[in-house]
């Protein structure tokens, strides 16, 4: 029992992957129609199957995402959310191992989570310029205590009253007869005004209101921010594809290295069995006096060496199977059932694979995403001195409410980031992306050509070694017959056995080199699952110990 990992946004990611896959599939189909007239029909089929595999895996993820739960990782013992149990057989074909790898790889699940996070950020930014409506409720209690100095006011009032009385007396003294002395009204009033007043107030206050703020013009800042987030999502997608392609290549490397190690162990066991027969024959001949004691000891020494080599080969095979087991995160060794293979047909011309690389390699998609980010940063920097226009309003929720509404526009006049420097920086980043695309394209073309030659070299090497295998097998047969007739010695038989083992091992190694070179070629083209089409079309298959 294993558990597979999923991300929180499986449905959303599935839609993205399906969209990308359909686009890629259309491109490959159009290319295949034009190239099919010139090259072997195998390659276009491979490209189509590669993308169909992506869609198929997406459908599997959607189905499994229906019953997600929290499970414990058997290696780290960490509890992982959004997972589902998965039954994994110990006998796996390469295609089965590929499907399982997509479901159990923590790296791919982490990439899916990163893509989901980036998509959610983009969705969040899309509403940044929508109206912002808010409600405000307040409740407060207050207590106010203060000593108010009234002496200045008091003196002013007294002086004012006295001055006013004097002016009136001077103006009407000639008209009105003299009156008895009147009281000093200024002093009378001043006596009633204190020199200070101690103010004390306390109470509570409540209020409520509704407001709105709507940025109706942001000079393109919102569009630039959303575009920047979209470009970052595209970069995360490209990184995910890069990691997935690398994992596919790692799986093929470990899968067929395990298969090669199993073949080597089988050959060593076969050589040991053969030398056991030779040793038995040498023992009988020695007892009958046909060979010397030295020849008898040579046979025993060769048998001991063969036994040691067989044990070492078995240990190497076990280690290779454990490496495959670790990649697929099982508790038991994985037994590969897909044999090493080779096609006697020549590959299409290298230019075909170079065109595939220039159109489908995720590294170029990542560079394009980097360039898009730089363009959006340039657009954002260009809005530095443009205005922001906002509508706003606020009203109280009371019996006799107060309200305010209006429009505001703001400009940055000075300060903050230097617009000229930020524009120059984003322009330099765009140039960096353009030059990086050129460099990456050159490197991809060279890498594709190298891998293409590696595949062809391994193919020719395998075919050349077939004569060595036939020759060494025939020599071994004759040497064993010669030993029975007394013509050859045990040393001759051991040497012939060694040469036969070497020839068969070298041929198996050449087949593995072909497989690894083909996987590297498909990865450098950006279509790693096209490897499966070459596997299915291969006309030469080596012996495998395990079968489904």
Automatic annotation (TrEMBL):
It comes from Psychrobacter frigidicola. This is TolC family protein. Its main location: membrane. The keyword Membrane applies. SUPFAM superfamilies: Outer membrane efflux proteins (OEP). Keywords: Cell outer membrane, Membrane, Signal, Transmembrane, Transmembrane beta strand, Transport. It comes from the Bacteria. PANTHER family: ABC-TYPE EFFLUX SYSTEM SECRETIN COMPONENT (PTHR30026:SF5), OUTER MEMBRANE PROTEIN TOLC (PTHR30026). One of its GO terms (cellular component) is efflux pump complex. Belongs to the outer membrane factor (OMF) (TC 1.B.17) family. The keyword Transmembrane applies. GO terms for molecular function: efflux transmembrane transporter activity; porin activity. Residues 1-26 form the signal peptide. InterPro entries: OMP_efflux (IPR003423), TolC-like (IPR051906). It is found in: Cell outer membrane.
């Amino acid at each position: 029992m294993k558990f597979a990992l999923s991300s929180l946004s499986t449905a959303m990611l599935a839609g993205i992957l399906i969209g990308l896959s359909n686009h890629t599939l259309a491109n490959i189909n159009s290319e295949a129609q034009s190239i099919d007239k010139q090259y072997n029909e195998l390659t276009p089929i491979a490209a189509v199957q590669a993308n169909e595999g992506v869609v198929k895996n997406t459908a599997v993820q959607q189905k499994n995402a229906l019953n997600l739960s929290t499970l414990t990782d058997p290696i780290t013992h960490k509890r992982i959310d959004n997972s589902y149990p998965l039954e994994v057989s110990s006998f796996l074909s390469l295609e089965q191992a590929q499907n399982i790898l997509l479901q159990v790889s923590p790296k791919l699940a982490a990439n899916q989570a990163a893509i989901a996070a980036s998509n959610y950020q983009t969705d969040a930014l899309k509403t940044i310029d929508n109206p912002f409506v808010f409600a405000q409720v307040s409740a407060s209690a207050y207590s106010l205590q203060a000593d108010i100095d009234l002496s200045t006011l008091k003196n002013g009032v007294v002086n004012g009253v006295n001055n006013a009385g004097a002016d009136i007396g001077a103006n009407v003294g000639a008209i009105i007869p003299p009156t008895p002395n009147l009281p000093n009204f200024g002093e009378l009033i001043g006596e009633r005004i204190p020199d200070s007043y101690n103010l004390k107030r306390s109470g509570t206050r409540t209020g409520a209101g509704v407001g709105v703020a709507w940025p109706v013009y942001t000079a393109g800042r919102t569009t630039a921010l959303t575009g920047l987030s979209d470009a970052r999502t595209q970069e995360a997608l490209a990184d995910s594809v890069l990691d997935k392609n690398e994992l596919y290549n790692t799986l093929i490397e470990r899968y067929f290295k395990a298969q090669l190690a199993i073949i080597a162990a089988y050959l060593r066991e076969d050589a040991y069995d053969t030398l056991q027969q030779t040793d038995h024959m040498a023992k009988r001949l020695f007892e009958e006096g046909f060979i010397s004691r030295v020849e008898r000891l040579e046979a025993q020494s060769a048998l001991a060496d063969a036994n040691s080599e067989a044990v070492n080969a078995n240990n190497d095979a076990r280690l290779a199977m454990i490496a495959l087991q670790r990649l697929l995160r099982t508790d038991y060794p994985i037994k590969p059932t897909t044999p090493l293979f080779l096609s006697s047909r020549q590959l299409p011309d290298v230019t075909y694979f170079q065109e595939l690389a220039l159109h489908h390699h995720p590294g170029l998609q990542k560079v394009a995403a980097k360039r898009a980010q730089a363009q959006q940063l340039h657009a954002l920097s260009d809005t530095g001195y443009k205005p922001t226009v906002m509508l706003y309003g606020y009203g109280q929720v009371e019996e006799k409410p107060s309200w305010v509404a209006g429009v505001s526009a703001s400009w940055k006049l000075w300060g903050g980031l230097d617009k000229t420097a930020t524009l120059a920086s984003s322009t330099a980043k765009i140039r960096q992306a353009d030059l990086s695309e050129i460099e990456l394209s050159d490197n991809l073309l060279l890498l594709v050509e190298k891998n293409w030659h590696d595949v062809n070299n391994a193919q020719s090497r395998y075919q050349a070694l077939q004569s060595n295998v036939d020759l060494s097998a025939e020599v071994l047969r004759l040497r064993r017959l010669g030993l029975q007739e007394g013509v050859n010695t045990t040393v001759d038989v051991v040497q012939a056995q060694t040469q036969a083992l070497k020839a068969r091992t070298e041929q198996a190694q050449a087949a593995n080199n072909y497989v690894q070179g083909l996987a590297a070629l498909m990865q450098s083209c950006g279509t790693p699952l096209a490897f499966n089409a070459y596997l299915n079309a291969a006309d030469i298959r080596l012996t495998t110990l395990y079968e489904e």
